[in-house]
């Protein structure tokens, strides 16, 4: 009943199901999988696509011969399983070279190397069919503002994005960029910390039409923000190019839990937004299994992400067709048309007429809204008793 279909576009990063369970306090608990094993696992759980960082697929020190062998085997696994590569990205955070950032590093050699690495990684992603290219600047931040001027950091980020947009245009690639914000971790503070920051930054680029966002549930929640509202702003602006689905207890470390594992209600409103507005790009699970899991349980984790999305989508359909809920919504949004002369685009006449209109302010203040009732119906629907 909750079987994924290709048109659902459920994807996982290689680094998600392939996560070996290392954390700041402990060594890996799961053996590393090959790219082929990851593709096979994703096919088994019903995923449509796999995304990768350059170095998830090809180790940073691989020889040309190793590189060719890995690419060949990966291609065979994709062909054999039908798994596709909709998105790719660059690892600009693991290697010690990026300890002070990549595009925003103070050392110009690091900044140039980051551009070179990204051009190569773009080529690799495009070679496997990627149409979306994600930028997550995990190291683009500081622990102290003593060493880096934050205005300079913004200018460096812009220069890098403009350079790489031109590179893509120059190569004739059919590729769009999606910028992913995160407030902190692994840096103390990361620049352009929220999706809203990214949306504003994009409008300052030379090719803003090529660039959108890749919001991640956990990243806005780490900052204590309403993720659905951030996604709505991106969606309304035509900038929701990609999305990273997972879950997170606010105020904790960067958890990247299974989608729907923590906050069912906010996950529901997110799915409702995506479905109501016909979001049509990848539904990417950027999450990983508990460190206590072995690979059998990692498959349960991946299936759980997919099932939770599909279950919530069914709940959305139920919400949208529940007559009591819809009657309440109609009541809440009631409009007798008497204000239509004052709404819409400004005109001097409208403004003059509005100034003359007498309002019964006390009556406005007496009107309540049945949000308790509506929310309780929503909760009961989610708890499965409606
Ligand atoms: C890393 C990070 C994610 C990003 C990935 C893309 S890598 O796992 O935590 O949020 O989306 O670089
Ligand atoms: Mn992410
Ligand atoms: Mn994350």
Protein model, in words:
Strands 8-6-4-3-2-1-10-9 form an eight-stranded parallel beta sheet. Helix 5 (about 110-125) links the parallel strand 3 and strand 4. It is an alpha/beta fold and about 375 residues long. The chain folds into two domains: about 5-320, Divalent-metal-dependent TIM barrel enzymes (TIM Barrel, Alpha-Beta Barrel); about 325-380. The protein has helices spanning about 15, 35-45, 55, 65-80, 110-125, 150-170, 195-200, 215-220, 225-235, 265-275, 295-320, 325-330, 350-355, 360-365, 370-380; strands at about 10-15, 50-55, 85-90, 130-135, 140, 175-180, 190, 210-215, 245, 285. Helix 5 runs parallel beside helix 6 (about 150-170), helix 9 (about 225-235) runs parallel beside helix 10 (about 265-275) and helix 10 packs across helix 11 (about 295-320). The structure holds 5-thio-alpha-D-glucopyranose and manganese (II) ion (2 copies).
Keywords:
386 residues, alpha/beta, TIM Barrel, 2 domains, 9% strand, binds 5-thio-alpha-D-glucopyranose, binds manganese (II) ion
Spell out the blueprint of helices and strands.
Layout: E1 10-13, H1 14-17, H2 35-45, E2 49-53, H3 54-57, H4 64-81, E3 87-89, H5 108-127, E4 132-136, E5 141-142, H6 150-171, E6 176-180, E7 189-190, H7 195-202, E8 211-213, H8 217-222, H9 227-236, E9 244-245, H10 264-276, E10 283-285, H11 295-321, H12 323-332, H13 348-356, H14 361-366, H15 371-382
Parallel strand pairs: 1-2, 1-10, 2-3, 3-4, 4-6, 6-8, 9-10
Antiparallel strand pairs: 5-7
Helix pairs in contact: 2-4, 5-6, 9-10, 10-11
The structure holds 5-thio-alpha-D-glucopyranose and manganese (II) ion (MN) (2 copies).
């Amino acid at each position: 009943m909750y079987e994924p279909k290709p048109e659902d576009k459920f994807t996982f990063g290689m680094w998600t199901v392939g996560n070996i369970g290392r954390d700041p306090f402990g060594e890996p608990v799961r053996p590393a999988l090959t790219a082929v094993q990851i593709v096979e696992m994703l096919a088994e759980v019903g995923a449509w696509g796999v995304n990768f960082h350059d170095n998830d697929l090809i180790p940073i020190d691989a020889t040309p011969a190793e590189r060719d062998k890995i690419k060949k085997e990966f291609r065979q696994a994709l062909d054999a399983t039908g798994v596709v590569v909709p998105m790719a990205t660059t690892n600009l955070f693991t290697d010690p070279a990026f300890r002070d950032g990549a595009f925003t590093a103070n050392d110009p050699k690091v900044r140039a190397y980051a551009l070179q690495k990204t051009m190569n990684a773009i080529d690799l992603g495009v070679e496997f069919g990627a149409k979306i290219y994600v930028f997550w600047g995990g190291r683009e931040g500081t622990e102290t503002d003593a060493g880096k001027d934050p205005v300079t950091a913004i200018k460096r980020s812009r220069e890098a994005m403009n350079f790489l947009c031109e590179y893509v245009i120059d190569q004739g690639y059919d590729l769009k960029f999606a910028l992913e914000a995160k407030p902190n971790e692994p840096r103390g503070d990361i620049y352009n910390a929220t999706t809203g920051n990214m949306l504003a930054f994009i409008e300052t680029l030379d090719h803003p039409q090529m660039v959108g966002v890749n919001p991640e549930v956990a990243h806005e929640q780490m900052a204590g923000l309403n993720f659905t509202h951030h996604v709505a702003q991106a969606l309304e602006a035509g900038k929701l190019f990609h999305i990273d689905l997972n879950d997170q207890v606010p105020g904790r470390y960067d958890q990247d839990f299974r989608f729907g594992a923590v906050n069912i209600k906010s996950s529901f409103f997110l799915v409702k937004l995506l479905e109501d507005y016909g979001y049509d790009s990848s539904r990417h699970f950027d999450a990983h299994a508990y460190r206590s899991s072995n690979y059998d349980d990692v498959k349960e984790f991946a299936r759980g992400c997919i099932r939770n999305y599909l279950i919530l989508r069914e709940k959305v359909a139920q919400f949208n067709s529940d007559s009591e809920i819809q009657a309440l919504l109609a009541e809440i949004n009631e409009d007798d048309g008497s204000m239509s002369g004052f709404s819409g685009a400004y005109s001097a006449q409208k403004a003059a007429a509005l100034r003359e209109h007498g309002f019964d302010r006390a009556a406005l203040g007496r009107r309540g809204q049945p949000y308790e009732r509506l929310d309780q119906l929503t909760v009961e629907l989610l708890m499965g008793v409606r």
